[in-house]
Design goal:
phosphoprotein; alpha+beta; histidine kinase; Heat Shock Protein 90; 9 helices; 5-stranded mixed beta sheet; Beta-Lactamase; phosphorelay sensor kinase activity; kinase; 409 residues; EC 2.7.13.3
């Protein structure tokens, strides 16, 4: 018997095999079906998907035998990955000096006929083989050889697809960790900045109220600049805190929300704007959702509808409906509308498309990004529909409770 030699690029080959994370995984139907098909096409009682580790050959799938691995030194597949041909065939192992006294020939599974096709990964490095085995001498036809090569390509497709899926899952996990760390950083940084900023605001207000008469006009402008800059920074920090917390809403934390109460609470919240009328339109009496999250979404959207409205009388209509799987909301205003080229930008954090609101203040570009984050966290989507001069409609959905309809809540 002649044991197979190590592959000329064995270290690289083993590293590539390890990168697939396939060794010692459970049996899978897709691979099992392919080896069964290989035996049917070639008319052999045994077929195997073999992966060659450092000291063993391990079977990802097998037909006609009932073992998961054998020693590499006795493997036919160890010779196959070193062969220059695209298929390695032994018609009668009993008369081949490399195999005639091999334990796998003389004992179970009595390998007499063998045909193996390498499973090649990146750079042509062989990971293992697809092989068919018989307990008697035989030969394969040209069509059987071609079919075996096609099946080996399908096995590599499965392996590559599995590897890409594994890499994508790993990348998603890393992205999730990074996003979590960024959210934590934003929350901590914003929280730690609030205290000294409040001191600056308090001191600048005291300075303006108590000492303004003692300074000239330029000094007053400087004090006012400190106050306005601090107030802008306070809004930005508050927005960052809201945004960092927006991903923490639990979509399963649901309670009954009366739409009458919701309308009353929102109207009272914006009651200081006497020029504003907020209407709610729905055939539903209540919904079953995360109350705090829904209120935050609506408060952000209605606050924007008020701040950026250019009419003397502000009209806002809130529509609420439901589909089989989601609640459907829309917030419609009679404002100036939004340019089509800006309608995607407005949901991105720190994107500002209006220089100033109706009160002469500049936005932070955080509110609508927060809305998008909360909505998506509740299993929904948000969009805007608008024409310049005709107002804007912000529509969003949130996943409805599967176990409880609004009428039952």
């Amino acid at each position: 018997m002649i044991a197979p030699e190590k592959h000329k690029r064995e270290a690289e080959r083993l590293a590539l095999l390890e990168s697939y994370g396939i060794l010692d995984t459970p049996l899978e139907e897709d691979y099992d079906n392919l080896v069964t098909l290989a035996s049917e096409i070639c008319g052999t009682p045994i077929s195997v998907v073999t992966l060659l580790d450092k000291d063993r050959q391990w079977f990802k799938a097998y037909h006609g035998i009932d073992v998961r691995e054998t020693e590499k030194e006795y493997s036919f597949c160890g010779h196959t990955i070193n062969a220059s041909d695209s298929i390695f065939v032994i018609e009668d192992a009993r008369i081949d000096e490399r195999f005639h006294d091999n334990p796998m020939v003389q004992g179970d599974p009595h390998v007499i006929f063998y045909a193996g096709v390498p499973l090649k990964g990146a750079g042509g490095l062989p990971l293992g083989t697809l092989c068919v085995i018989d307990t008697k001498p035989r030969a394969l036809t040209k069509s059987q050889v071609n079919a075996l090569k096609i099946l080996s390509d399908q096995i590599m497709n499965l392996l590559d697809l599995r590897k890409k899926k594994m890499e994508l899952e790993k990348a998603n996990e890393q992205l999730a960790r990074t996003n979590h760390e960024l959210d934590n950083f934003a929350a901590i940084a914003a929280h730690d900045l609030k205290s000294p900023l409040n001191n600056i605001l308090t001191l600048s207000n005291c300075l303006y109220e108590d000492y303004a008469p003692l300074v000239d006009d330029e000094g007053k402008q400087i004090i006012e600049f400190i106050r306005s800059s601090s107030e802008t920074l306070r809004k930005l920090i508050t927005g960052l805190l809201d945004y960092s917390k927006s991903g923490q809403y639990n979509s399963n934390d649901k309670t009954r929300i009366s739409l009458t109460d919701l309308h009353k609470n929102i109207s009272e919240l914006f009651g200081g704007h006497k020029e504003c009328v907020i209407r709610i339109n729905s055939e539903l009496d209540s919904i079953y959702a995360n109350k705090v999250a829904v209120e935050q979404i609506l408060i952000n959207l209605i606050a924007n509808a008020i701040k950026y409205n250019d009419k003397s009388k502000i009209e806002i209509d809130l529509d609420v409906g439901e589909s089989e799987s989601h609640y459907e909301f829309s917030v419609r205003d009679n404002g100036p509308g939004i340019n089509e080229e800006d309608q995607e930008k407005i949901f991105k954090i720190f994107e500002i498309v209006s220089p100033k609101d109706r009160f002469g203040e500049k936005g932070t570009g955080i509110g609508l990004a927060t809305v998008k984050k909360v909505v998506e966290g509740l299993g929904g989507q948000v969009a805007v529909s608008s024409k310049v001069g005709e107002g804007a409609t912000f529509s969003f959905t949130i996943k409805a409770a599967s176990h409880m309809s609004p009428s039952m809540a």
